Amino acid sequence: MATIPEVYAGKSVLITGATGFIGKVLVEKLLRCCPDVKFLYLLVRPKAGQPPSTRVEELIKCRLFDKLKLEQPNFEDKIIAVSSDMLEPKLGLNEENTNILQQNVNMVFHVAATVKFDEKLDLSLKLNVMSVQKMLRLCQGMKQLEVFVHVSTAYANCDRSHIDEVVYPPPVDPYKLMYSTEWMSDEMITMLTPKIIGNRPNTYTFTKSIAEYVFVEEGAGLPLCIVRPSIVGATWKDPFPGWIDNYNGISGLFIATGTGMLRAVIADADTVADLTPVDYVVNMMIGAGWHTIIHKPNTVPIYNCVSSATNPTRYRDCNVMIDYYQKTPLESTFRRPYVYWTSHPWVFSYWNFIGCKIPCMVTDLCLKLIGKKPRMVRVCDRIAKSMYTLKYFTQNDWVWSNRNCEALMNALPDADRKDFFLDLRPLDWNEYLETYCVGTKQYVLNEDLAALPAAKRHIMKLRNIRWVFNTVVLVALWRVLIAKSELARNTLDLVLNLSF
Questions:
Q1: How far apart, in whole angstroms, are the C-alpha atoms of residue 409 and residue 424?
Q2: Which of 2, 114, 486, 493 is the most interior residue, by most CB within 10 Å?
Q3: For the ranges 248-252, 325-329, 415-419, 463-467, which has the lowest average pLDDT?
Q4: Is residue 149 helix, strand or coil?
């Protein structure tokens, strides 16, 4: 059986979402581990006055590509940036680029999507559903298409407790919904959104579910497959451990914990934290494409790319982050890392107000007094909002079947098992979480590990400040009690008589 690099050799690959977290890792992995791939066409939209070519140049400056630069110094020659916009008709492609893609592309990875949970429904439909329709129309004109891999989410069907590797019927008629949002006012869409999405917690999971249905329905006759990753986290080991480049989702909560800005977490400590390393997810995507090409299945294979099916961890296990962030503290630490776990939102609100909001208000007041712009309360509120957004996922459990993932792993040739690892059972969660925490420091906050002694001294200073503050408060309270309570005075006399 042909190996993955052999199947990808000489092939041209089209990738959307290449400037995103998963997309970057996919680009690096294909170029490094499938060295004979012909071209990577990256659909990139102009942004902030930067043309796609400039954005791709910035992309490959990322430290993620350091290993690739050493192994293949001329890898940039294989990357072709194509100007595109998912919101535009025909993806914003001109006729020339459309013809080039349809004549040359063999494989497609559609990764682009909005991952904002609270995105407006009409925009979420355009980015997550209508973009799939446009990609399918483009692919239907491709002369040499061998596989189209669509990246969904394991939470697309989060209204179910058990999720199989199948496409479920959509909760509403997708076409009527897309047509309706075209003429509805923003106010009407906002008002109707809770009723439309029903049991789902947000527009992201809702539109991802609809996108799967549209993908299968309109892609009939094309070689398709779907990969559904759960919560995507830092790299496990490839190209190196701990790489992460964003504040999205759980990574933002990790950083907020490390800075001491997150004092409580709304979560059921026994709930499974279905975290999947991004390098594992990308291996699954590449492997799914290979498997579809080799076996040419009659139905659309779906891969529930989750960790809980083979190596589950629970949110209580994430508490080790406190120790790791004290061992490798962040330079921007506001308070010593500490987290109180609760399943009650009102308890979270209390701890957030006492432990974060009040100190932030005091800090902002000091910033105002010295002529600087206050910002800490705004950051505190943003973190609290993120926690409320994520609580649906930290308080509920799901069971995913992963028969297709197991079959793919077992089908891998021995030569591919090292580079394209698909077995999460050897993953040590404590070790992974430690490298994750270090990764947020190095790659998200761009802090130098050489400055670690200074960061540790800062942590010790924060500890001493807290001890002094607590002592002053206790002494002040005791003085008030002594002044007003005869019992307190008698107790103090008794202690002094016993001690001296």
A1: 10
A2: 114
A3: 463-467
A4: strand
pLDDT tens per residue across span 62-105: 999 999 999 999 999 999 999 999 999 999 999 999 999 999 99
Give the DSSP H/E element, type plus range, for residue 309: none
Give the amino acid at 308.
S
Looking at residue 474, what is its pLDDT? 74
Question: What's the length of the chain?
Answer: 500
The pLDDT score that the predictor gives to residue 461 is 80
Task: Using alpha carbons, select from 80, 75, 82 the residue that is nearest to residue 239.
Answer: 75
Cα separation of 468 and 109, whole Å? Answer: 56
Which residue, 283, 272, 328, 329, is CA-closest to 305? 283
pLDDT of residue 424: 95
Q: How far apart are CA 196 and CA 350, in angstroms?
A: 32
Give the DSSP H/E element, type plus range, for residue 150: strand 147-151
d(CA 161, CA 459): 42
Number of continuous H segments (helices) and E segments (strands) in the chain: 20, 13
Report d(CA 121, CA 412) in Å as an integer. 40
Listed residue (426, 431, 173, 147) closest to 303, CA to CA: 147
Rg of the chain's alpha carbons, rounded to an integer? 26
Distances (CA, A) of 81 to 42, 46, 149, 302, 343: 5, 11, 20, 29, 46
Cβ atoms within 10 Å, residue 201? 19
The pTM assigned to this predicted structure is 0.92
Token pair 């029903």 in the structure block, residue: 198
Angle at 313 (CA atoms; ends 233, 276), nearest 5 degrees: 25
Question: How confident is residue 487, by pLDDT bands cut at 50, 70 and 90?
Answer: low
Angle, vertex CA 371, rays to CA 367 and CA 377, nearest 5: 30
Residue 373: DSSP 8-state: P
